[in-house]
């Protein structure tokens, strides 16, 4: 068994254990393997070990890997990175999920460019919950306005919220605030039940506060040789 398969097995084992500890049903939490900067062969290793949900941060990289793995038609691709207008077509044609919607302009372009044959693009609104100037995402008080605009686009399906709480703060306040926002959103949009939060170093806190999708990179694929993308801080 290679490293990736073993690390993936451990990640699922830890997830099951934490779900038991917090008295949550395992079935409500999806583990998304974040493969950004890693080669397609690493995705294949995880795929061989049973993983089907993968996330990428850069549109070009998503398209390239998808092409290399074209025969793996049951992979579910999630786009989780910053998205500029000139790259929306790549994402509209290749992802099933986009977690990082923070402007109506981007949502509208994705809707226009989504091929009908692929069905609705599932989207999450990214909230800048720790109010960091350097981070993407909208302010919490803008959530319902953007949600209303997205809900009017028939090619998109609004499925919930995403956040990247500030690194290093070892308190739960941002996660708790996201859980409250999610409940508020669901009062208006009952299908928008997903809450994407939690990364390698903070996923247990996210899980405890209602995360339904955790995005794990490093614990599965190892450290990234950090290759800063053009849109990344
Ligand atoms: C890179 C990235 C992750 C994964 O981070 P790890 O700390 O490696 O688990 C999750 N979410 C987003 C938005 C990312 O950019």
From TrEMBL:
<dbReference type="Pfam" id="PF01168">
    <property type="entry name" value="Ala_racemase_N"/>
</dbReference>
<feature type="modified residue" description="N6-(pyridoxal phosphate)lysine">
    <location>
        <position position="36"/>
    </location>
</feature>
<dbReference type="InterPro" id="IPR001608">
    <property type="entry name" value="Ala_racemase_N"/>
</dbReference>
<keyword id="KW-0663">Pyridoxal phosphate</keyword>
<protein>
    <recommendedName>
        <fullName>Pyridoxal phosphate homeostasis protein</fullName>
    </recommendedName>
</protein>
<comment type="similarity">
    <text>Belongs to the pyridoxal phosphate-binding protein YggS/PROSC family.</text>
</comment>
<comment type="function">
    <text>Pyridoxal 5'-phosphate (PLP)-binding protein, which is involved in PLP homeostasis.</text>
</comment>
<dbReference type="InterPro" id="IPR029066">
    <property type="entry name" value="PLP-binding_barrel"/>
</dbReference>
<feature type="domain" description="Alanine racemase N-terminal">
    <location>
        <begin position="14"/>
        <end position="224"/>
    </location>
</feature>
<dbReference type="GO" id="GO:0030170">
    <property type="term" value="F:pyridoxal phosphate binding"/>
</dbReference>
<dbReference type="InterPro" id="IPR011078">
    <property type="entry name" value="PyrdxlP_homeostasis"/>
</dbReference>
């Amino acid at each position: 068994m290679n490293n990736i398969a073993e690390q993936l097995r451990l990640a699922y084992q830890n997830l099951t254990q934490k779900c038991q500890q917090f008295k949550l049903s395992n079935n409500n939490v999806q583990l998304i393997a974040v493969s950004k900067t890693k080669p397609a062969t690493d995705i294949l290793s995880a795929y061989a070990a049973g993983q089907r949900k993968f996330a990428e941060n850069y549109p070009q990289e998503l398209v390239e890997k998808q092409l290399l793995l074209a025969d793996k038609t049951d992979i579910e691709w999630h786009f989780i990175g910053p998205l500029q207008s000139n790259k929306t077509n790549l994402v509209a044609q290749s992802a099933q999920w986009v977690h990082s919607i923070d402007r109506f302009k981007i949502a509208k372009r994705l809707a226009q460019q989504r091929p009908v044959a692929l069905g609705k693009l599932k989207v999450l609104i990214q909230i800048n919950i720790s109010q960091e100037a350097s981070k993407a995402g909208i302010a919490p008080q803008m959530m319902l306005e953007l949600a209303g605009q997205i809900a009017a686009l028939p090619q998109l399906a609004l499925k919930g919220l995403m956040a990247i709480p500030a690194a290093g703060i070892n308190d739960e306040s941002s996660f708790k605030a996201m859980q409250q926002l999610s409940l508020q959103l669901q009062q208006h949009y009952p299908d928008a039940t997903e809450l994407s939060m939690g990364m390698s170093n903070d996923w247990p806190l996210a899980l405890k506060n209602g995360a339904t999708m955790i995005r794990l990179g490093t614990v599965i694929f190892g450290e990234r040789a950090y290759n800063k993308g053009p849109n990344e801080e």
